[in-house]
Structures
1.
Amino acid sequence: MSATTLIVGAGYAGSVTARALADAGRRVHVIDKRPHIAGNAYDEPDAHGVLVHRYGPHIFHTNGERIFQWLSRFTQWRPYEHRVRGVVGGVRYPFPINRDTLNMLYGLDLDEAGAAAFFERVREPREPVLTSEDVVLNSVGRDLYEKFFLNYTRKQWGLEPSQLKAGVAARIPVRTNTDDRYFTDAHQAMPLHGYTRMFENMLDHPDIRVQTGVDFSDVDNRASYDHIVYTGPIDAYFDHRFGALPYRSLRFEHEHLPQVERFQETGTVNYPNDHDYTRITEFKHLTGQKHSGTSIVREYPQAEGDPYYPVPREENERLFKRYEELAKGERNVTFVGRLAQYRYYNMDQVVGAALAAAKRLSESAASTPT
Ligand code: FAD
Ligand code: UDP
């Protein structure tokens, strides 16, 4: 019997690696401590039959042609372009900030060149741009920073924008046109029958065995596997030897509204300055589902709880590097994914990282003398 690879975690990192290894001829055993597959992308019908994302809204978008084609083996797609509004002073503005946002907010009638000139006038040039505060002030200046970014970031991370690396706020573009899509990637789509179904198809292979409800700490025959792919938090793998690596958590408050066809005009509405939650998402926008009622989720950021976000700041990355050094010494373990690599990855980036990890593993196995 050929040796088996153990994969810890059945989210994108684990499931993509599992399938790619199985396709390359390996036998794979996937475990997840949760009672389901798909990791944070898990979706399910709620008690009222509306398809919801248990761990918050997931919108697939990528410029990676290869990544999109690879996933397309396991799902058909529903084209979907996500739109978001940001509420300031009780008014819903297009977000990311674009020309319409400026015109609505300041009672202007700017054209594209006028919007560019506006940003040029109000921006506070920063050099170098190191933090998320730098990014926003450098592009849109203080008023827009305070209205749309400052309090949202405080709420989401429990930190000042000046304490977060530039990459966090740099996820959000600033536009002089009137494009109000949240993403501009070449591919923007939702799996037609949901993420969980896509993962079921991905893991449906004669050489993949899946066990949910199993924690890595309960696996006492680790030595019997030829290799381990670990996709959980890297600090937990090493028993927090150097101290806990901070991960930001969320509490999700799901609600079903009977006899409400449509709750809000866009998939997501952000509340930078009001409430303890950051945003409300209405799932029917994302999925296109028809239902007499609707289901929404509010996201409440918190320090404790399941790890959802690495916290991108210098000191955390220094601590991560220490764990990464330990990881390099674990010859038979590959660390991949948002928690294991401590990177603020989107779904498509995790697919890319997992495919690369599987390729490396297959190649190293092929070159190992027997
Ligand atoms: P995870 O999905 O976290 O999977 C890791 C798995 O490992 C988990 O299922 C966990 O239970 C399991 N595990 C951990 N430790 C153990 C252990 N000891 N034993 C057994 N199992 C273990 N990305 C986008 O591209 N678009 C979006 O719109 C988007 N929205 C998001 C919204 C929210 C609220 C969040 C939190 C993330 C969002 N993301 C989005 C990011 C996306 O969720 C991640 O990139 C992706 O799911 C990460 O996959 P992963 O496999 O690395 O981690
Ligand atoms: N952000 C903000 N105001 C908003 C939306 C986002 O200040 O209305 C900032 C905030 O710091 C957030 C980051 O931009 O954490 C990235 O936002 P994104 O929507 O990409 O976050 P995610 O969907 O990953 O939670």
Note: The first helix runs from residue 12 to 23.
2.
Amino acid sequence: MPTEQTGYDPSLGRKFVFVTGGVMSGLGKGITAASTGRLLANAGFDVTAVKIDPYLNVDAGTMNPFQHGEVYVLKDGGEVDLDLGNYERFLGVDMTSDHNVTTGKAYQHVIERERAGDYLGRTVQVIPHVTNDIKRRIREAAEGSDVCLVEIGGTVGDIEGMPYLEALRQFAHEEDDEDILFTHVTLVPYSKNGEQKTKPTQHSVKELRSIGLQPDVLVGRCEDELDDATKEKIALFCDVPTEAVFSNPDVEDIYHVPLTVEEEGLDRHVMERLGLGEEALPTAERENTWRELVTRERTGEVDVALVGKYDLEDAYMSVHEALKHAGLEHGVDVNVVWVDADEADGAHRERLESADGVVVPGGFGSRGTEGKVEAVRYARERDVPFLGLCLGFQMAVVEHARNVLDWKDADSAEFEPETPYPVIDLLPDQHEEVDMGGTMRLGAHETSIEPGTLAERVYGDTACTERHRHRYEVNPDYIDELETAGLVFSGSAGPRMEILERDDHPYFVGTQFHPEFRSRPDRASPPFVGLLSAVLDATDPRGGADGTVADEEEVTA
Ligand code: GLN
């Protein structure tokens, strides 16, 4: 049984790989960890991950994607850091909100318990109460897996990170040495005369050791592989064996990192060190799909315009990845052509017109919405394959109302509350809830799909379950009138319209949900695969530009 003193339950015997970062953030420690996890999964282990975000926000739901990158949505509706998206894509697992630990969550829980009198009059402190809560969360998230990767966001030495490093120090004492491994990812820069410099690494390891943590493995992020001399120097100064120092050189595509990690032998080292070597599948029997997929020969390339707000490309990470996955499925490279929505009818018009397909992604706030409507209009009128996601779906409805039905001032009530045609609005029973603060429709919900529609061909089914993050809906009062002159709602969930398509266009699909969050390298998202089928069909010089989705087999993934 766990005790209040340590929060430790020794009956839960799993392996933990802790990943900290040094020198600077944004080094890709999440990708390094996820890649190692992919290889452990290939070797037959159940792998999961926990991302720790040392900020005070309870979750990422309220965070600005143009400062922090996309808000990733989990099956259970959790709004989390985009790193969880990488873990889901690399490990091929579905996670829950419990896999994103934040300082906000830990403190909120401890304070609630304090108010409820759970601490029986004791002084409530960071150590042990907050640190115990952190350890409990890590252990609970790891339940049911063989190996749990735990990534601590930020850089060693950050004030916000201190309670976590202290929690890990305690954790290390509570578990067997063989069950935990500390990996530290740092930067190895080049000096002007081309020498690999180890001083930043030495300093950050010194910082770790001053907190009582000794890394077992060091990974040097560098433009190139680390020289033997560099590895030896790091080993000597940081007190690890040379075999425990690994390179993680820059690669063109993050999906190649598992291949580099494997070449370096990092996965083998981790398995041996955690005593998993014997249980691992022999190399010949390991799962190989990842390697086959990411090294598959590409027969061409296509350009897809992504019409968004371009303050930060990471704000559209999952859409970008989903396009890549659809490309893997079709054996082509997808170049994303970034089109600033504000410039869709101006400076970026040429970029929009240069692309073979158009994606209008999700978003909040009115900035850029007029440009998005213009991009929809362009795709509709010119028969360019189109996919609208969430706000993109809503803008497709607005565009149809304004330009096809001639309801000139039609709009979403989110942007123009006084519009005479609120074709996108809150559902009647939502109005009251909005005043109370929370109404976002989040997470996985089922959509029924009309038989005989493009949506049915794309999904190869009459239902799909996809993740949501929105507040506004197609206004039920207008559905009948909207469904004239080409527009068809082919997917719905009760009163909510979920998928639209046009019967006067080669591939015009909009989804109120976000299919990009379920897309994986080996399980590309059907609407994205369908988009690329149509693009390839239209650009195939041997003909086939008959305006239909290429081949049902191809689009059902
Ligand atoms: N702002 C829109 C809504 O709340 C769309 C949300 C989104 O694109 N994720 O309904």
Note: The pocket of glutamine is lined by residues 362-364, 390-391, 414, 469-472 (CB under 6 Å).
